[in-house]
Amino acid sequence: MVTRSPFVNRIIFYSLLTMTVVTTVFPFLVMLSSSFKTSEDQLTIPPQLIPQHITWEHFRDVLDPDVFPFLLYFKNSLTVSLITAGLSILIGTLGAYSFARLQYKGRSVIQKMVLIIYMFSGVLLVVPLFQMVAKVDLYDTKISLIVTYLVLTLPVSLYMLGNYFRTIPEALEEAALLDGLNRFQVIYKVVLPLSTPAIVTVFIYVFMIAWNEYMFASVFITSEENMTLPLGLSKLFFTKHYIWGRMMAASLLTALPIVALFMLLEKYIAGGLTVGGVKE
């Protein structure tokens, strides 16, 4: 067996890391560059990554309601994403805690069924969900998207939170129960503060799914007043106002909330908070 020196291993590692970073970041650099290029610079051959003439025209156009009602779509996306993420945390916390700590008949079966549901592709759920939404008269409403995104994300939320809750020493909860707290108080005062990394991770995950989802939104939403940003970008692509600069500017503004959310909450994601919580 041939063994490589540590120096060669480092070269291979950093080469692969560089390739990964370049392939990941390069599309965003192109989007950023195109959003500041003039319409003439978009067509230069060979293409240039650095704009020759910087313009803010595309951003002004995107924020012009007569060209692209960005603020309306932004408000709809933000409303749907925040409510979905909040409900997913609320329902997921209670459900995951019951899976991790409580003993009751059928718990294992229910837990397995939740994971089996996640195995089905979202495409398979379009027709049944559409029929349900139409029957309860929720078609073309933001509520239909919230319910749909909960169905899509709740299995992962339950799985991630449940696994994290199992890492919390049960002695902490038992001590709280002996002090007179009930189960809900234990969850609120003990489990949730120790589960901040998992809760933040699940919140970001659900928020991203709801923010970027297009397929279900395109089926359930028809009126412009309820459209989310992915639908709005698709609509802009097929209008007379479509040019590359505007599309890239709108895409950049759409991506910024996700980037900002991750940067604000990044410190809560890394590491657990229960180390040293109980002395052996």
UniProtKB/TrEMBL annotation:
Query: How is this protein situated with respect to the membrane?
Result: Multi-pass membrane protein
Instruction: Give any single GO term for biological process.
Output: transmembrane transport
User: Which PROSITE patterns does the UniProt record give?
Assistant: ABC_TM1
Q: Where in the cell is it found?
A: Cell membrane
Give the GO cellular component terms, alphabetically: plasma membrane
Residues forming the ABC transmembrane type-1 domain are: 74-265
- The answer to whether the entry has keyword Transmembrane helix is yes
Family assignment from sequence similarity: Belongs to the binding-protein-dependent transport system permease family.
What name has this protein been given in UniProt? Sugar ABC transporter permease
